[in-house]
Queue: 2 jobs
Job 1
Amino acid sequence: MGEIILTMKDIDKSFPGVHALDHVDFELRRGEVHALMGENGAGKSTLMKVLTGIYTKDSGTITYEGETVEFHNTHDAQAAGIVIVHQELNMIGDLTVAQNIFIGREFKKGLMIDDRKMIRESKKLFDELHIDIDPRAKMSDLTVGKQQMCEIAKAISHQAKIIIFDEPSAALTEKEIEDLFAIIRDLRKQNLGIIYISHRMDEIKVITDRVTVMRDGAYIGTLITSECTKEDIINMMVGRVIYENPKTHSMVPEDAPVVLKVEHLNAGKSVQDVSFELRKGEILGFSGLMGAGRTETARALFGADPKQSGDIYVNGEKVTINSPEDAVRHGIGYLSEDRKRFGVVVQKTITENSTLATLEKYMAGMFINKAAEKAVAEKYIAELDTKTPGADQLVVNLSGGNQQKIVIAKWLVRNCDILIFDEPTRGIDVGAKNEIYKLMNLLASEGKSIIMISSEMTEILRMSDRIVVMCEGKKTGEIPIEEATQEAIMDKATRDIK
Amino acid sequence: MGPVIGSGSISFSFYQQKEDKRMKKKVLAVLMSTVMIGSLMAAPVFAAENLSDTTEGIAQFEGLTANEAYDFQIVVKSFQSTYWQAALQGMDMAKDELGVTYTAQGPASESDIADQVNMLNSAINGAPAGVGLAACDTSSVLESLQAAVDAGVPVVAFDTGVPEPPEGSIVCTVVTDNVAAGEVAAVNLYEAVKDKIGQGAPVRIGEINQDNYALNIQQRGLGFINKLIELAAADGFTVAMEGNEFYVNEAEGAVEGDADIILEVRVPAQTTVDLCSTEAGTILDKEDTIAVFGSNQTAAEGLLVANDNREVLGDTIVGVGFDAGTSIKAAVEDGTFLGAVTQSPLMMGYYCIYALTAAANGQELIDVPTDGYWYNAENMNDENIAPNLYD
Amino acid sequence: MTKKRSIFTQEVIVGIVLVALYLIFRLISPDFGKYTTFLSMMDISYYYALMAIGVAFPLITGGVDLSIGTGMICYALAGGCLIRFYNCPTGLAILVSILFGVGIGLANGVLISLMGLPPFLATLCTCMITRGLGSVVTGSFAIPWPTAKQDNGWFHSIFKITTADNLKLPLGLLWIILLTLIMQFVLAHTRFGRYTISIGSNKEAAILSGINVKFYHVMVYMVSGLFAGLASIAYAAVIKTVQPGTGAGMELDAIGGAIVGGVSASGGYGTIYGTVIGAYVIIFLKQGLPYIGFNANMQQIITGFVLIGAVTIDIIKRKVIK
């Protein structure tokens, strides 16, 4: 490890309703791979976005190569030698691979863009990285994994001094991950500073030199990787927050009937021959890597996306679900992972949101029966313990956790007995998270059945009665909670990856 | 043939008195004022038998002076064509002579009916000495006219008359007789082509109307059609109608099937020059076409755009236009158009202010029909014609 | 760029449709086949084609420019006024008209890119403004441009020349072809073009790639304004007398042409040659249907169905690729 190249001190950043970064410190040396760890919502990505100028910090200082800096956009940061490989894919689908890699700094021949040179340079780059991609291919025609590799190649092709990898391995196969590590080691040798954000404990141990842990937007501590154990890191990540007691055995009664049965569901590449059962009062966890097809399965089941084939039985009876309307009629409710886009109408009141899916029940002739509507909204505010001054409050003014409760209320009002929670605690503060957990357990104990899709291993292990694991559109395993371990799940989640 | 049908003589002493102010401003005004006197002396009235005598309407303004320096509100249909420029010039002349003032406004296009009604309402609310109105849609203004009666504001309708207005609202109507205007186009057009009719094969005469809902276009279009049928019948020829259903159904005396003359009426979907030109093109392209009439400025300009490439007007096909404007005037001058009918927007504007002033004085008024003129290359520079030919 | 695609791209299909339309109209109406009809059709096509080339750029960014129709009239009025009332040389007036267009384009770009207004809203506002402005600059009067026979009417020969033996040639078509090739080149082989596509395909990614998206987004609307300015000259040359208050609705024919020609209604894809071919399909329908006995109302209905057809192809195409 060389000298310090980057110091972030006392970085503070708030968004409406969320204190995303609470006086965070971070340090990076030349020639080191520095892991940044923490649960979802711990503030890792936010910290990196502050560093690369996507977000403006509220306070604190950034010292880069001995000078205090503040980047106002990614372009400035790139020019200074700090590049980021994003977690979300940031590729322009309608352009080719080469055009994407050199976007913003195209080679020119007179007025014209020199596409040939860009293709040549891309090839060179891919050869160095041992990646087999045609630079002339259209980006949207590539698989997610290959797009990710392009993203990495693009970042490397900048004359970078610091490269930030934001969960780069999430969509990569084992072979690709090995290649990636080879590249990273190579870059480390070239004395670059590398920040590596990942959830995967095994990778951290293999590739990184130091680990900085964040939790709930705060800096917890920095360890030297070789001198610590996994458990040390996990303890720092989880902290002393008391969650619902993790399940050690299934809470579902032996004789609980099957309320939902899905057989041989097929929907495009993302859902291939998926079958499973859901029993009354059960929380069925869906685990897998990014792009494993869990959300797609839920959406196909819910009728939001078309399916090619597959039978669905609700309470033993075969049903046809071609649209969300059909699903809701059969008592299935879906809580989207992206609440703002699909779950709630943030500029409307709690009352209006609560009855959104059931408005026909609250009509008096042509008009909405506002009193009845409000009464039911208030009932669920009390029942779900939603923190709000009143039912007339606009949803946008609520915290993430309370917004989630409004979505739950919406489906409970609709009398849905089967609830699909897609990433129910994404972007929710730790305290509120626990309330959602409590609520889910309560709902299950009242006889509601829940499918919970989650990317957080701890959440899966804590909440599920049974776990379905998916990989590349296929169901690769089903594990009772009694036998479930992180390793067992991970093994199945990567089973089909070549 | 003579360009002027009918005649009469009126003297206008009041007009000569105050012609000086604008002269200093514009050479154009000088020309117009002098020409105006001549024009009024000669008073060329077309189709006199169809019009009420203009003498009486105009004579009522003799010796008129304004009792106060009145302020009037004028609401026009739009400013879309240079037609309105001439009307406002006439108003300017009258206001200078009488020592009154006026403010003119109008919507962006003639189809913005609601905008015009709003303008009219606010004009009435300002309690002016009087309101001059050229209504886009005559039925939409009825409510506003009732408000004018209630507020005691006299309204003078010009350019377009309002049928059945609320009692006491319209004190005077200053309009061109559009039926007669269409007729004079038919008379001149028929005279030029009648030798080609009845020579064996049927011949085609076209008419381009910019729409089939505005009253003045309807009247003009049907005036042309019915007069043509009448003239043809007098010579023993029959006429069959083709094209736009409204005009086909309203035509009187047309025959079904074979006839000596096919009269084809075309109406575009929108009142734009390029759509008019497409419709005109289809007529100009037909082998049997001998004459075409464009019944307002937009239609006549469309006819000229279509002729740009075909160059048949003034050669194998007789063209007749309506209104003035640079392109149409140039077409008449170089013989592309046999001639055109112009209204007298200048006189309409002029008498509108006179009527408003007289009404504000408390005078009882009768309607004032204004003159229209047939003009061609020979007479367009005559002193009794030129002032009405706005650019 | 699109090596592996089928040769039956939307552009090719629309090109075939264009030829088919011409042949069908000719077959039904011999008059439609006359050279003079063709000339008239070309005259009227120039300003629609120019508007379409320009508006293709905002469309490819996923935006729209509704101000080009009324804008075109406004710029023509401004230039015409200069010639008529200020004895301005024709060349200078033409330049002013074009620059006026670029200026309104700049205003659109600033509203959309820097102030964050939705393109539909921003350009709807400038549509209204240019409509009113046209009336204001002219004192609300129709403005004639010089005729071809006048000394300062030389600009007519940009679009149509008459040979010694009185043969008229639609020179404007040559300019349309040339501008199509130039702008296609700009779209496919320059940074500006590439970023136009990028903004339409994934604006967020373009920003994160360090592109000055705001700058290029403004440029996109300036190009649209520039072509509306060029269209105003073509309009003045063909229609000669420009009436204030008109022009609304013309932008829809240009936008419709671009969509028919394969520009993706949601942005990210489009070609300029496709756009121009699509614009000519609309013009052929507009000009040809009256010849085969359809009135102009039927023509609008048919054009609507053609648009639905074109957009459906676009959607199906995207689904198949997916």
Note: The first helix of chain B runs from residue 13 to 17.
Job 2
Amino acid sequence: MSTADASRTRVLVTDDEPDIRNDLSDYLSHLGYDVSVADDAGNTLSQVTETAYGVLLLDDMLPDESGLEILPGLLDIRPSMSVIVMTGCPTVKSVIKAMRRGACDFVVKPFELDELKTAVHRAAQRNQRLVDEAFRNCKDTTKDSRVVMNSVYQD
Amino acid sequence: MEHPSILVVDDELLIRDLLYDFFQDQGWDIAVAESGEQALEILQEKKVDVLLTDLRMPAMDGMALTGQVRKSFPGIPVVIMTGYPSVESAVSALRNKVADYITKPFNVNELYKRVESHLLREDGETA
């Protein structure tokens, strides 16, 4: 996928710190992504339910609930969404937890914008690949159903 | 159902022996390798459902082996184990689509549960 394709991806930035939220939103919008923001877990859950985001930048420490705690539920709603966990207090345990709960990346604050750009681009590509696969599988299933239906009618 | 198969890669004989006996007792088809290079040779000849590798090994380390496996045997889930865990290596494992990262010393029953859970994920998007 080209950069231009990736940059059409919808990105949700969840962080309770307004400066980080706004800076990331400005930076990613400048790169061409379609960016929304959320400031807590509840808001993230409702936004992910309403909108098919391709990438979620999820802070681990949120005021109402931990980002890592809500991660599996978010992926149940949007299985092809790529989740990048962000934290200022990384531990081996938290990275393992992120891995086991389905995150595709983990970035440690403070991070370089270039590092973030690479991570978001990679996440957008992964999302696109999963969406394409799901679409292909859906098409194959439809085709199989047609073949079965045709054979039923011919019989 | 056919016995699940595992390839254990570790330069420590003690770990290889421990895991060989354990997985064999569980009815698994197990092969062991003492290096990444040997592991790749075994993978050419043998069907493996899951690869469990140490991270720190002389010559080819666990992450380099993971890269080779991703390229040549993309469907095989890779589980890393390490006695020297770090945020950096865990993040690197996550980015390299490693299925799991287990720290040593481990409880062998816990390790078994983790490894077994990856047998069921055949979607090529391990963890």
Note: Residues 43 and 119 of chain A are 23 Å apart (CA to CA).
